[in-house]
Amino acid sequence: MAKTLRTSGDYTIKAGAGAAGSNDISLDSRMVIITGDLRVDGDQVVQNVTNVTVEDQFIELNKNYSGAGTEDSGIVINQGDNQDAAIFYYDGTANEFRIGTTSRPIADGSTTKWQIDGGAFTLANIKVATTPTNSNHAASRAYVDSQVVAASGMTNFSIVGDDSTGVTVSDGDDVKIAGGSNIGVVVTEPDTVTINLNSNLTNVHSITNSSTNANLTISTNGTGSILIDDVLSFNANRSGEPGANSVTKLFAMTPSGGGTGLFFNNTSVSSGAMDELISKKKATALAIALG
């Protein structure tokens, strides 16, 4: 027979000394229905049930925290005796979610916090669908590998030289950087290609400095000299005299009294004024004329 207990004010059921004592209150029935809110003022709620069904859209954890927003909070999953517990939590300091295991043994559910720092936490893998269906979905390793292979396929990848001769590089082929008669190529880890001159220059038809008004310097090592084993030609006359300095400069201009068109200047000679080298024919004529 159903019974209703009604009071006109608050109603308290207390066993022994209450929360400060050691006595319990047991409700033994098929179901306990509470019409209204339920508040538990204590340290823990232990639910020895098979399944928990919650109608709420959101579950708030760490309710009474009021710090600076660096608190860690999450869900711990018991994996049994002597096993690491699985944990999904938000790292308040790093502002990121983390999934892994904690090596601390399962406590008795008291206020003891789980250790997730100092080496006690190990990141774990998370499994997602093989192929994401949205650009914001997490991608599996299989999907990433397939995309990388597809993007890096080189079946139609061609390399063309200066002479317009091309070669096709297929999947699995190596691309060789070969040096010519004057160029050496060395490949070392990590991912370094060094190109250098490994012999005397041959078959070089032109050396040009493309920088405006910049010098082109040819220098030797130590006491070596610059040797010219053939004809040195000046292909164009200058429009004016270059400035003299502490070294001798040779340059070509319109031939004058020396009959050569090859001029020089040096600050140590005639105060840097230019002069023309004289030809053998002119020198002989002057020698006869001067007796």
List the helices and strands and how they pair.
Blueprint: E1 73-77, E2 85-91, E3 96-102, E4 121-123, H1 141-152, E5 157-160, E6 166-169, E7 183-188, E8 192-197, E9 249-252, E10 262-265, E11 275-276, H2 280-289
Antiparallel strand pairs: 1-2, 2-3, 3-4, 5-6, 7-8, 9-10, 10-11
Strand order of the largest sheet: 1-2-3-4
Between the first and last Cα atoms, what is the distance in angstroms? 158 Å
Query: Which bin fits the share of residues in helices?
Result: under 10%
Low-confidence stretches: none
Mean pLDDT: 83
Sheet-strand content, in percent, reads: 15-25%
Q: What is the radius of gyration?
A: 46 Å
Helix- and strand-based class? Answer: mainly beta
| Element-level helix/strand string | EEEEHEEEEEEEH
- The number of distinct β-strands equals 11
Q: Tell the overall outline.
A: rod-shaped
Largest sheet: 4 strands, antiparallel
Number of helices: 2
Structural account:
By secondary structure, the chain is mainly beta. It is built from two helices and eleven strands. Among the domains are: 70-152, no CATH class; 249-289, no CATH class. The chain has helices at 141-152, 280-289, and strands at residues 73-77, 85-91, 96-102, 121-123, 157-160, 166-169, 183-188, 192-197, 249-252, 262-265, 275-276. The chain has a four-stranded antiparallel beta sheet, with no helix packed on it. Strands 9-10-11 form a three-stranded antiparallel beta sheet, with no helix packed on it. A hairpin with a 3-residue loop joins strand 7 (183-188) and strand 8. The mean pLDDT is 83.
